Amino acid sequence: MSDERFIPFLRSEVTALCAADTAPGDRDAATEVHRLLAGVLHQRYRRVLREVEADYFLLHPPEYARRDAPPAEEARDRARARLERLLDGLADTAGYTRITQEELAASLRSHALLRVRMEIPDRTQAGAVLYRRGRVSATARVRTWWGLRTKDIAYERYSRVLVYVHTGEVTALKLFEDVPRDDIEMLLPGVRPRMRLVDKLLIVVPALVSGIALVATKLISAVGLLVLLLAFWVGLRDTPVQVNQAALVTVGAGLVALGSYVARQYRKYTRRRLQFMNTLTDNLYYRNLDNDAGVFYRLLGAAEDAEYALAMLAYRELRAAREPLTAHALAAAVEGRPELQRGREFRFAADDALATLEELGLAQADGAGRRSAVAPVQACDQLRRLWCEAAD
User: Fold this and answer.
1) Which terminus of the chain faces fewer neighbouring Cβ atoms within 10 Å, N or C?
2) DSSP assignment, residue 140?
3) Where are the bilayer-spanning segments (predicted)?
């Protein structure tokens, strides 16, 4: 079974799916349940947003913030710890799965679309926390044989990748989209592109060939003259070397040829490095969705939508069941719905869904640990009460 927990449906689609199975007599009340549940969850996440802003602006105050003294280091550490815990909780609620160090190491060993070897600073890799969501199979056309041929390759990509890095030098929070599974290392700050063996050979081999040709055609006369001069100066040769204008021209031409050869090879090397940097920059630029505080805003919205989807799908299934369901039976019933299949396997987080319903008073458990949903009319009354309490 897939470890993917993300449900690939918009909130409006979830609402439509749940409304389609509602009995005609309960349809108006069920519609009100959807509306009230969305409002109550929005109020809850609105409060979390204010807490995030308070802690985040303590660490990164905006330009218009005025303070007589900077906050104490202990207060900043507590705010960072709260944000890290909240980030982990929001990512889990929004259906993200944490990327293990083994997955990151495997990405360093392989490539999908980015044919560049990456080098990651040790402190960055140790302080990095990455999350993924939405595993999708994809194909792409890439160039091979130095651009002479093209071929289609199959690879896996993640719809979203969340990156959090905190070291002594840098704190980064970024969100990316459509990232190949084998190229996720490019998202880390401080990553440096390095040449693969084949890239080095493409520079070294032509340089050696052209260097040998240069020595054989233009440098051999100048090198021979310089060797004779050196031998005379150190006493290995008794006959002095005649240095005339023709000899100086030969030596000068050889030095100019050597200098132009070195400059040409250096330009080739720097151009290759720039190509790697441009490849990395283009991939990051087009895949970047948000940074820093904006990531929290996106995560809060995604977590709110995911909790709504879980709660509504669980409520619908409990109402449709003829008897109370266990968490395992609820998960199997939701995952087995054909209208929820879109070519992506996902694991329905039944425990989280039931916890939300019980917290809101929309489900109740019997002595055997099985749950049943309250009637839509009763659910509306309960949600209105929660709405009024939150507004006070």
Assistant:
1) C
2) E
3) 201-234, 246-263
- Whether 232 and 314 map to the same domain: the answer is no
Domain boundary among 139, 172, 193: 193
Tokens of 245: 């204008």
Q: Looking at the chain, list the stretches that DSSP marks H as alpha helix, in order from N- to C-terminal side.
A: 11-20, 27-59, 73-93, 101-109, 122-126, 197-214, 220-233, 245-287, 293-320, 327-335, 350-360, 376-391
* Cα separation, 49 vs 37, whole angstroms: 18
User: Is-contact 15 34, C-beta < 8 A?
Assistant: yes
Q: Which residues pair with 364 in a beta bridge?
A: 372
Residues 99, 189: one domain?
Answer: yes
What is the spatial distance between Cα 385 and Cα 40, in angstroms, rounded to a whole number?
Answer: 10
Q: How many domains does the chain have?
A: 3
Domain boundary among 193, 228, 254: 193
Over residues 138-175, the pLDDT tens digits come to 887 766 665 567 777 788 888 999 999 887 667 789 99
- The structure tokens 């409006």 sit at 12
The verdict on 329 and 376 lying in the same domain is yes
Q: Domain range spanning residue 255?
A: 198-276
Q: In the predicted model, is pLDDT for residue 189 greater than 60? A: yes
Rg (CA), the chain: 32
Do 246 and 211 lie in one domain? The reply is yes
**CA 306 to CA 350: how far, in whole Å?**
12
Q: Is residue 84 part of a domain?
A: no
325 DSSP 8-state letter: B
Evaluate whether residue 59 is within a structural domain. Answer: no
- Within a domain: residue 256? yes
SS3 of 87, please? helix
Residue 373 falls inside a structural domain: yes
Half-sphere exposure of 219 (CA within 13 A, CB side): 16
Q: Which residue would you say has higher pLDDT here, 361 or 56?
A: 361
Is the distance from CB of 114 to CB of 186 less than 8 angstroms? Answer: yes
Tens of pLDDT, residues 86-101:
999 999 999 999 998 8
For residues 240 and 258, state if they share a domain: yes
pLDDT band at 273 (very low <50, low <70, confident <90, very high): low
Residues contacting 27, CB < 8 A, separation 6+: 19
Average pLDDT, the chain: 80
Among 162-176, 203-217, 250-264, 371-385, top mean pLDDT goes to 371-385
